C-alpha cells in the first residue's frame, strides 16, 4: 500500500497520528518512520512537524531510527524478572552480540525491553515482531533465535 493510500484512510484528526505512524513504520523495511514520513503526516493532518515528531518519540513502539527486520522485545517487569528474564537477556545479548537498544550490523535484529506484555503466567516472556514466546529458557531462546537467523521463522 502506498503512503497516500494510508493517509486517505484516516480523517484529518490529531488522534489519528499514532495509527498512521504505525502503518508507515510497518511499511518501512527498517521498521522506523523517516523525517519525510513525519512531514507528510503533519502536512496531511494540518499540524506542525514537531507535534508528529513528539508523538513518535513519546511512544516506544515507534522508532525514528532504522531498526532490524525483527524486533525482539523482552519483558522487563517484575514477574518476568522473578522468573529469570535477566538470564534470558544475557543469552540474547551473547547470541546477537548487541546490547539493549542496538541493532545487529546485518540489520536483522533489534533488541528492546518492554513493560509487562500481559502474559505473566508464562514468564519469562519476549515478543519477536507480533509473536509472543513464553516459558523461556536459555535453550529455548537459542533455538528460537536460530530459527529466525536461518529464516525458518
Ligand atoms: S511481567 Fe512479563 S509478561 Fe507480565
UniProtKB/TrEMBL annotation:
Keyword Iron-sulfur: yes
SUPFAM superfamilies for the chain: Thioredoxin-like
UniProt KW keywords: 2Fe-2S, Iron, Iron-sulfur, Metal-binding, Oxidoreductase
Enzyme Commission number(s): 1.6.5.11
Annotated [2Fe-2S] cluster binding sites: 75, 80, 116, 120
Cofactor(s) for this UniProt protein: [2Fe-2S] cluster
Transmembrane parts of this sequence: none
Keyword DNA-binding: no
A single GO molecular function term of this UniProt record: metal ion binding
Cofactor binding note: Binds 1 [2Fe-2S] cluster.
Coiled-coil stretches: none
Pfam families: 2Fe-2S_thioredx (PF01257)
Family named by the database record: Belongs to the complex I 24 kDa subunit family.
Name of the protein in question: NADH-quinone oxidoreductase subunit NuoE
Organism of origin: Candidatus Mcinerneyibacterium aminivorans
Protein encoded by which gene: nuoE
Amino acid at each position: 500500500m502506498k503512503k497516500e493510500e494510508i493517509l486517505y484512510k484516516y480523517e484529518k484528526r490529531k488522534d489519528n497520528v499514532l495509527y498512521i505512524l504505525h502503518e508507515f513504520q510497518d511499511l518501512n523495511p527498517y521498521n522506523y518512520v523517516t523525517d519525510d514520513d513525519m512531514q507528510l503526516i503533519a502536512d496531511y493532518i494540518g499540524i506542525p512537524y514537531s507535534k508528529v515528531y513528539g508523538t513518535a518519540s513519546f511512544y516506544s513502539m515507534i522508532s525514528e531510527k532504522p531498526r532490524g527486520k525483527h524486533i525482539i522485545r523482552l519483558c522487563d517487569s517484575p514477574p518476568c524478572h522473578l522468573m529469570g528474564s535477566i538470564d534470558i537477556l544475557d543469552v540474547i545479548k551473547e547470541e546477537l552480540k548487541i546490547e539493549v537498544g542496538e541493532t545487529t550490523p546485518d540489520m536483522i535484529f533489534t533488541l528492546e525491553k518492554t513493560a509487562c506484555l500481559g502474559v505473566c503466567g508464562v514468564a519469562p516472556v519476549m515478543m519477536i515482531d507480533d509473536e509472543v514466546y513464553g516459558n523461556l529458557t536459555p535453550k529455548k531462546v537459542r533455538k528460537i533465535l536460530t530459527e529466525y537467523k536461518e529464516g525458518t521463522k
